[in-house]
Amino acid sequence: MKLKSIKSWQIVCASLLLLAASYGIVRACAGGDWDESYSSNYTPEVFVADTTQTPFFYTWLFYYQIGFDTEHNERFNSTNVADWSKYLKGSVDKPSLEYLLNKANSKAIGQLVAFFDGKVLPDSLKRKAKGISRNNPQHKDFIYYLMYAKKCEQYAVYYNYYWDDKRTLPSRSDMGNIEESLRNGFEKSSDQFLKERYWFQLVRYYYFYDWDRCTYTFESNKLKFSPSTMYYRAMSYAAGAYYAMDRYVIANYYYSRIYDGCNQLKVVAHSSFHPQNESDWQQTLELCQNNEERITLWHLLGINYADEVRSMKEIYKMSSYSTKLDLLLTRFVNKQEIGTPYSQNTDSAKKAIEQDIRWCQQVANEGKTSNPFLWDVSAGYLSFLIGDYQKSAHYYQKAAKGTPNNDLAKSQLRLLTLLTNIKLLPKITPANEQSLLADLQWLYKLSDKNVDTRFRYYNAQSWVKKELAQKYEAQGDAVKAECFSSSTAFYSSNSNIEKMKAYFQNAKPNAYDKFCMGMSEKKLVDLWEYQAIRAAYSDSLSNAIALMQNVGETSTLLGNPFIGRKNDCHDCDHMAPQKVKYTKMSFLKKMKDLETAVAAGTNVHANAFMLGNAFYNMSHYGNARAFYEGGVITAGQSSPYYIPTEFAAMLTSNKMAMKYYQIAFKRATNNEQKAKCLFMMAKCERNEWYNTTLYSNRENEYNYDSNSPDFIQWNSFKLLKGYKNTKFYKEIINECGYFRKSVVG
């Protein structure tokens, strides 16, 4: 069987595999900040409590939550302090150790070396190195070791990101006698603690300058030390040297040992683990001393090559109770839900997935694992993902009998059970509604509670609303469907709106009805306001005012809606000083006053012209879009292309504006007034031409032929040519390019 291709990120970062994993120096790729909680219902933390496994949960990132491993220089800081504190029996306080190990430069350490040779220690350094005494031989050994360790940082510590520049190592001659000093320290030290550290430094030195000596120094001395953090750090350099010499078999074996033996090196060992093919993989397996080592290798392979089920099968044969199965199973489940949906796979891929899922179900049925709850819940959710809801419910019932006594596990099972229960409903009856109510209330109040931040429930909140909406829509209950998932199509029918108003105004709603009303994005006042807006666009101003009165206080418009501009610039109008600020209600009342005056024959030209401006400005092209923006028609529609189809005709129409500009033109008393009316009428004609030519087809946003005309000889432009002697004509021909082209043409 061939190994699957390694992850693309490992190929991209291949140049730093040795660096990042073997000696923990290079600060690798910098990560992103994505979050699976918005596309997943399955929380892996429920099932894998070991936090050292967390970075390996299935993720879009290189590593779950952390993105990239960037702790290479600081990874062992606290461990080193703790180890030396124990070795020195607490004779040097931890702040001083932290300074000496992690912050002090070579000059400071040199002053301490001189101190042990009889020199006076500077006062500033005394304060930073409290407890260091000439009378303590361990202190002298510590400081002399530090002198060499600090020098090693010249080649062993790299502070730049790998893409910033190419790294140049100091030559061996530049390093002076450091090799001899480290070897002497290793060979002459009788203290096992110091001896191991000098060994580590020597192995690391040879990694940079002599790969053969690196592996030899490790191999010839490894039996002298018990496995420890320092032991695995030395092994990582030996593994890196083997890898650099293309000896992948032993390199990958060592990486698996490091992964299993040193939690701090788990991520870097994983990132370097890279079997080349099936042959070297089998050879690596042959190096294992026992099944536990083989299990670790299969565990790593399952993570690296995204073939979790193959690895789980092999591990299960060796030890069905191995906890290394747990991470692989959570990865497999998350991959099925977050990756390509089952329905979008090819038939052959579906069959392969179904086979893998059947194996997981079989393991759950056998119940011979260390975490039966994980296997039962996972079998249930995998069954859900392929549409086998009856089997999903069966596994959840089984899982309920062994749910761990913690909130996260209980919440996970409750969430997934709710999803399956909803899918199992052929129709939602009143009895079903009452049975679902408690779980629905729980789900949508989670954000208000002190819920575990790791719990993934956002996706379920979205999914449940859409699923319930679809079921209600299918059974003809458009109002409840709208409560769960809003659709602009719903508001194209006034009958729908009236039904929803009646639902909201029910004098005796039951608990489920109250829940539905609470779930609805639209509230009763939004419906009243939307009906008022619709009435205004149809020139039914009295009705609009009556409807708007049910809304209560209305928002303020940003510009003066009764002025007309030569060029459309709502931002300009919003910034202009305004003597009167209009709300939606006062705007309607002012329009009604103007309409009454026109009907009565009072100052018809001026009042009709202001009404034309009002209707123009409350369209998408004017300065009062805020009039129609609200709970139903939302804000942010910067172009007619983005206006929902159901609202587009109403919001882009200038029919009513045209009506009142024509009245104003007929009752004008001079040519200046007539010229202004004609120009505003031309703007209405222009907008209607846009509506029918461009905005009627949303594909035109990107595909409209740039060679097509962007204006035509609108009738009002033709008539405006007859007013050449007016001041307004001269202003327009200078300001309006369309009109200037029309005249020249």
Word description of this protein:
The protein has 745 residues and is mainly alpha-helical. Among the domains are: 430-522, no CATH class; 528-744, no CATH class. 60% of the residues lie in helices and 0% in strands. It contains 38 helices and no strands.
Average pLDDT level: 90
- Portion of residues in beta strands equals under 5%
Category by helix and strand content: mainly alpha
Radius of gyration: 38 Å
Largest sheet: none
What fraction, in percent, of the residue positions are helical?
55-70%
Beginning-to-end CA distance, first to last residue: 76 Å
Key terms:
elongated, mainly alpha, 745 residues
Task: Outline the fold blueprint.
Blueprint: H1 8-12, H2 17-23, H3 77-87, H4 94-103, H5 106-116, H6 123-128, H7 137-156, H8 178-188, H9 192-209, H10 211-219, H11 229-244, H12 248-261, H13 266-272, H14 278-286, H15 291-304, H16 308-318, H17 324-338, H18 347-366, H19 372-385, H20 389-400, H21 407-423, H22 430-444, H23 458-474, H24 478-484, H25 494-504, H26 511-519, H27 524-537, H28 541-548, H29 570-575, H30 584-600, H31 604-617, H32 645-652, H33 655-666, H34 671-693, H35 700-703, H36 715-720, H37 727-735, H38 737-744
Helix pairs in contact: 2-11, 2-13, 3-4, 5-7, 7-8, 7-9, 8-9, 9-10, 9-11, 10-11, 11-12, 12-13, 12-14, 12-15, 15-16, 15-17, 16-17, 17-19, 18-19, 19-20, 20-21, 21-22, 21-23, 23-24, 25-27, 27-28, 28-30, 30-31, 31-33, 31-34, 33-34, 34-37, 37-38
